[in-house]
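Dear H.,

Thanks for agreeing to be a second pair of eyes. The structure we're designing against is below in C-alpha cell form, covering all 321 positions.
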C-alpha cells in the first residue's frame, strides 16, 4: 500500500493491510490536521517523508533500525493463542538476530513454518511457564497473537537493554492501531511513552517482554489467573525500552473492560495493594471523573468509563467477601 494522502476512513483500510502483512509506505508532504502522526508512523517499516518538518515531528516514533546480518544471541518467542494465527510471525522471522517462534495452541490454530506446541490453557502464567520446557535459547520473548513488531531491530533493542541495564526483565513500547480511540492512544502513551535508551519500571508487560530463560526457570511466573507479569515483577529489577516498538491495542468494550478491570484490581489487592474504590461512597465520589474522557471522546465512551469504575468497586467487594 502506497499512501500519499489520507481521509479518516482510510485508517481502517490501512489497519487491515498491516494485519494482512502488506508493505506500507508513507510519501506525503503534510498530514491532515485531524489525523495524528502518532497514529501513522509506527505503521511503516519503509518511510518516505519529503518534508523536513514532518520528518522531525515523526522521528521519535521511528522503529528501531536493524543490522544487515542476522547475527547475535538466539531468542525464542512464545505466543499463546486460541483464536487466530499470530499476526507478528513474519516480523519476528525478519528480525536482525535469530528468533524462533513457538506458538502455544489448544490445537485449533494451524501455523505453517513455525513450531506449534499443543497445550491446554492453564492460565497466563502457568501456560507460558510450561512452554519453557521446550525452549533452549538464552532468551525468551513473551508476546501475544494480535501484536505486530515494528522494525528489524525491535528484539535486539530488548536484548541490549536487558544486558546493559542489568535487568531481570524488560518490555517495549506499545503503539495503538490506526483506528484506536483517543482514550486508548492516551493511556498507551502514558503506560509506554516515547523516549531514548531504557529506564527502570514497575513491572513488565507480556504483550512484548523479554527475559533470560535461566531467570524464569529459577524464578517461575506465579500461578495467578491474570496479571502474572505484574505479580512476577514485584521486588525485581525491570526495565522499559521505548525504542522497541510493537503495534497493539483493543477496541474498548464495556463488558470486556468490566471483567478485565475487576480481575486485575482483585489481583492487585490479593498481592497487598489497597483497593482504589473500596466503598460505595468512593464510587459515587469518583463518578465525576468519568466525564472528562466522555466529553473529549463523545458519549459512546461513557459506558466504558462506567464499566471500568464498576469493575474497580466490584473487585473490592470480592476481596472482602
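And this is the sequence the design step returned. I haven't edited it by hand at all.
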Amino acid at each position: 500500500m502506497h499512501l500519499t494522502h489520507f481521509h479518516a476512513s482510510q485508517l481502517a483500510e490501512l489497519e487491515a493491510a498491516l494485519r494482512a502483512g502488506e508493505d506500507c509506505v508513507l510519501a506525503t508532504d503534510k498530514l491532515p490536521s485531524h489525523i495524528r502522526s502518532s497514529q501513522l508512523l509506527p505503521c511503516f517499516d519503509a518511510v518516505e517523508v519529503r518534508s523536513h518538518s514532518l520528518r522531525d515531528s515523526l522521528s521519535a516514533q521511528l522503529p528501531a533500525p536493524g543490522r544487515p546480518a542476522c547475527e547475535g544471541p538466539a531468542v525464542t518467542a512464545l505466543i499463546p493463542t486460541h483464536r487466530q494465527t499470530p499476526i507478528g510471525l513474519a516480523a519476528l522471522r525478519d528480525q536482525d538476530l535469530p528468533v524462533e517462534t513457538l506458538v502455544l495452541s489448544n490445537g485449533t490454530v494451524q501455523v505453517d513454518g513455525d513450531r506449534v506446541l499443543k497445550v491446554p490453557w492453564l492460565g497466563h502464567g502457568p501456560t507460558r511457564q510450561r512452554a519453557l520446557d521446550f525452549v533452549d535459547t538464552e532468551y525468551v520473548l513473551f508476546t501475544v497473537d494480535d501484536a505486530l513488531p515494528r522494525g528489524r531491530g525491535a528484539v535486539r533493542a530488548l536484548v541490549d537493554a536487558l544486558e546493559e541495564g542489568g535487568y531481570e526483565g524488560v518490555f517495549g513500547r506499545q503503539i495503538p492501531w490506526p483506528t484506536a480511540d483517543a482514550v486508548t492512544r492516551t493511556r498507551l502513551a502514558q503506560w509506554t511513552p516515547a523516549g531514548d535508551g531504557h529506564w527502570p519500571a514497575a513491572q513488565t508487560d507480556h504483550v512484548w517482554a523479554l527475559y533470560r530463560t535461566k531467570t524464569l526457570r529459577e524464578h517461575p511466573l506465579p500461578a495467578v489467573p491474570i496479571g502474572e507479569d505484574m505479580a512476577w515483577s514485584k521486588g525485581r529489577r525491570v526495565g522499559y525500552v521505548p525504542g522497541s516498538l510493537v503495534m497493539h491495542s483493543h477496541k474498548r468494550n464495556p463488558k470486556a473492560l468490566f471483567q478485565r478491570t475487576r480481575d486485575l484490581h482483585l489481583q492487585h489487592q490479593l498481592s497487598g495493594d489497597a483497593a482504589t474504590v473500596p466503598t460505595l461512597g468512593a464510587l459515587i465520589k469518583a463518578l465525576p471523573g468519568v466525564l472528562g474522557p466522555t466529553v473529549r471522546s463523545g458519549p459512546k465512551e461513557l459506558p466504558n468509563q462506567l464499566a471500568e469504575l464498576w469493575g474497580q468497586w466490584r473487585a473490592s467487594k470480592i476481596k472482602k467477601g
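Two observations from my side: The CA atoms of residues 9 and 151 lie 26 Å apart. The first strand starts at residue 2 and ends at 3.

Warmly,
E.
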